[in-house]
Amino acid sequence: MTLATSQIYYYGINEKTLETEIFSFAYSSEKKCYVASDCQTVLCDEFVREIKKEVLYLRKVSR
User: Which of 37, 38, 42, 48 has the highest count of CB atoms within 10 angstroms of its CB?
Assistant: First the structure.
C-alpha cells in the first residue's frame, strides 16, 4: 500500500562541485516508484542550514 500523494525531498551535496542539491520526488502510481517531480520543493531551513555548514567544511578540508 502506498500513498498516491507521497513525496520525498532530497537534501544533498554534489561531491564534484561542493554545491548543495535539493530535489523533490513524487510517487508515480503508473510506474510504481518515485520519479523526479516538477513541483516546488519545500525547503526546511534546518536541513538547508546543515547542508551549507557541511559544504563550507568540505571546501575547507579539500584545500
Answer: 37
Concatenate the DSSP letters of all residues of 30-42 into one string: TTTEEEE--SPPP
- Tell me, yes or no, if the pTM score tops 0.90: no
Q: Please tell me the distance from the alpha carbon of residue 48 to that of residue 57, in angstroms, as a whole number.
A: 14
Q: Which helix (H) or strand (E) segment is 20 a member of?
A: strand 19-28
List pLDDT tens digits, range 39-58.
Answer: 776 788 999 999 999 999 99
Residue 1 makes CB contacts below 8 A (sequence gap 6+) with none
- The CA distance from 19 to 28, in Å, is 28
